[in-house]
Design goal:
The complex is a heterodimer of chains A (about 325) and B (about 325). Chain A has about 325 residues and is of the alpha/beta class. Chain A contains eleven helices and seven strands. The chains are: A alpha/beta (about 325), B alpha/beta (about 325). The complex binds thiamine diphosphate.
């Protein structure tokens, strides 16, 4: 357990370091435009991606840096993409909100709330015909539960018994509005359950819990059991987007969120298990050093060339 | 109704002032959408209105179909809903309610039912906006009879079109461009009686050519026109704060006074953009002489990288050069 927890902590720190670096590069003007960080939500990707195989397909939202990293996409081209470099995973066209790395089973972020859900259904559908029986996983926020596309996708997947995992990261906020003000029944699992699929709410701050739950459901889906829904209870420690002054949030609430965020919890648990501070610190600094190297390399990469701007519109 | 008054506001302040006025003046109005009430809108445009008007201003779930569809229903029952679609790109998840429903209500009921709602949205490109937050979609809505479409570019016009939109008995879409929101404060006149929708604005006068434009890019066109004027080439610039109704007469009249020379400048893609319609109308009127010029984005998706995106959106240099060439420079 000790080794596993330490490995999870390393994986979460890689994401945290990437995000903090992205934030700094936004502040210094090197990254421009809209960037949505997943600081505080690292346990979900780290736990859930382990449940997937290489040929499975993952569809994320604009808050997807952590998912891309957990899926195995290398740091340098991911950061290069945020920086608008020619070497970016998408040559500067996608940017922070559309990272994709299909060779790692990361089929892209999406900036339209809820749009990934029906697309994931299609990926699973294709797997039925091409014989791969791939599992498709789609990640979205609590706010996205209120999109028609998500309802339609869940019902379609249930009716067709397709292997789709619907993963809802409930960080309680939809941009600047809390979930309690946009739904009457806050028990989000009631909806997919009513459509006929297993639906559970779990601690989204514990990567081991996420891994175990998601693995079981993915296996069941792979064996023909149809779709499933997992609500990860989590929090974001930063604004909705970089630059959001978070006027809607109280200090007390943020303080409570800092207590329960996954990295703080993992560090506490390791200390309680008697792991010495030096080892924990080594894990942290090596993750940050790895990200720092990738960022320095990406910063040295050439910008995307203007002449290429109209490539890739058509085949 | 308040008397004529002069206030100093920027573009978003002007929209805010117009909304405050209509909420106060028209008891049937409702204002709602994602993050518009307590948070005051993601761009701060609706700040303070919730405090002032209470339950007539409220936040909704992220449910564009329900936002637009409920506006259609409420409007049919006598309310005047003003709803926000946060970015025009998000309209696309709920077009049924706009195009199949709202635009049809009056027609299919033989005029016995109407859906006088206003949709506020914003579009365009700003540095680093992603591909699904960068599109210029006006042509999509202009293809649909039954909808009114406005695209103001100054604080005064933003104020005027919003007031007119709320008093209009048709469904109206008002497109702002987010690059305009935080511009300079300007003096605007408020409190005038609402003007009927439509009309155009002659922003510059000159006989060398007619340039037709709308939305945020109007400002680049005006700078280009000023540069050309310094070189002795004076062009007429006609801005269309309303694209439907389209003030074709003013455009045709102007082109005939500028030797049949016409350029259209917009931020949207060129193919099947509204520029094509403007050119066709003028051609049909038989006043075109020589080749008309369409300036817009060269039919591309919009990249995230600000440098790449800048290569696509017409800038002042390009507009100056192409219009100058048209005017025989
Ligand atoms: C269809 C659509 N409507 C609105 C938006 C604007 N928007 C972007 S993120 C967001 C909040 C989403 O909240 P949630 O689904 O809880 O995800 P989170 O950002 O918390 O991860 C909204 C309203 C959008 N991108 N797409």
């Amino acid at each position: 357990m000790r080794e596993d927890l330490l490995a999870d902590l390393r994986a979460m720190w890689r994401i945290r370091a990437f995000e903090e670096k992205a934030q700094a590069l936004c502040d210094s003007g090197e990254i421009r435009g809209s960037v949505h960080l997943c600081i505080g939500q690292e346990a979900g990707p780290v736990g859930a991606c382990d449940a997937l195989e290489g040929s499975d397909a993952l569809f994320a939202t604009y808050r997807g840096h952590g998912w891309a990293i957990a899926r195995g996409a290398p740091l340098r081209p991911l950061m290069a993409e945020l920086l608008g470099r020619a070497t970016g995973v998408n040559g500067g066209r996608g940017g922070s909100a559309y990272l994709s790395a299909p060779e790692h089973g990361f089929h892209g972020e999406n900036s339209i709330v809820g749009a990934g859900a029906p697309i994931a259904v299609g990926a699973a559908l294709a797997g039925r015909y091409d014989g791969t029986h791939r599992v498709a996983m789609t990640v979205f926020g609590d706010g996205a539960m209120n999109q028609g596309s998500v309802h339609e996708a869940m019902n379609f997947a249930a009716a067709a018994r397709l292997p789709v995992l619907f993963l809802c990261e409930n960080n309680r906020w939809s941009e600047l509005t809390p979930i309690r003000e946009t739904v009457h029944n806050e028990t989000l699992t009631d909806r997919p359950a009513a459509l006929g699929m297993p639906a559970v709410r779990i601690d989204g701050n514990n990567p081991a819990v996420v891994r175990e739950t998601v693995s079981d459901l993915v296996e069941a889906a792979r064996e023909g059991g149809g779709p499933a829904f997992v609500e990860l209870s989590t929090q974001r420690l930063v604004g909705h987007y970089v630059g959001d002054p978070q006027l809607y949030r109280t200090r007390e609430e943020l303080a409570a969120d800092r207590e329960r965020e996954p990295i703080a919890v993992a560090v506490r648990r390791l200390a309680e298990a008697g792991v010495d501070e030096g080892e924990i610190e080594e894990a942290r600094s090596s993750a940050f050093a790895e990200v720092e190297r990738a960022v320095q390399d990406a910063l040295a990469d050439p910008p995307a060339s203007r002449g290429s701007v109209r490539e890739h519109i058509y085949a | 109704m308040p008397d004529d008054e002069i206030i100093k506001v920027n573009y978003s302040g002007a929209v805010n002032a117009a909304l405050r006025r209509v909420l106060a003046e028209v008891p049937q109005t409702l204002l709602y959408g994602e993050d518009v009430a307590k948070p005051g809108g993601v761009h701060g445009v609706t700040k303070g209105l919730w405090k002032e008007f209470g339950e007539r201003v409220f936040d909704t779930p992220i449910s564009e179909s329900a936002i637009l569809g409920s506006a259609v229903g409420a409007a049919m029952m006598g309310r005047r809903p003003i709803v926000e679609i946060m970015w025009a790109d998000f309209f696309l998840v709920a077009l049924d309610q706009m195009i199949n429903q709202a635009a049809n209500v009056r027609y299919v009921s033989g005029g016995r039912l109407t859906a006088p709602l206003v949709v506020r949205t914003q579009q365009g490109n700003s540095p680093g906006a992603c591909a699904q937050h960068s599109q210029n979609l006006e042509a999509l809505f202009l293809h649909v009879p039954g909808l009114r479409v406005a695209m103001p570019s100054t604080p005064q016009d933003a104020y005027d079109t919003m007031v007119s939109a709320v008093y209009c008995d048709d469904p109206v879409v008002v497109f702002d461009n987010r690059t305009l929101y935080f511009g300079e404060k300007q003096e605007i006149v408020t409190g005038r009686p609402p003007a009927p929708v439509g009309g155009s604005l002659r922003r510059r006068s000159g006989s060398a050519a007619t340039v037709v434009t709308w939305g945020a890019i109007t400002h680049r066109v005006l700078t280009a026109a000023d540069r050309l004027a310094e070189r002795g080439v004076r062009v007429t610039v006609i801005e269309l704060p309303w694209l439907n109704p389209f003030d074709g007469d003013a455009v045709i009249d102007s082109v005939s006074r500028t030797d049949g020379r016409l350029a259209v400048v917009h931020e949207a893609n060129v193919t099947a953009g509204f520029g094509a319609e403007v050119v066709a109308r003028v051609a049909e009127a038989g006043v075109l002489r020589g080749r008309p010029v369409r300036i817009g984005v060269p039919d591309s998706r919009i990249p995230a990288s600000p440098e790449l995106a800048a290569a696509l959106i017409p800038d002042v240099d390009r507009i100056t050069m192409e219009v100058g060439r048209l005017a025989g420079e």
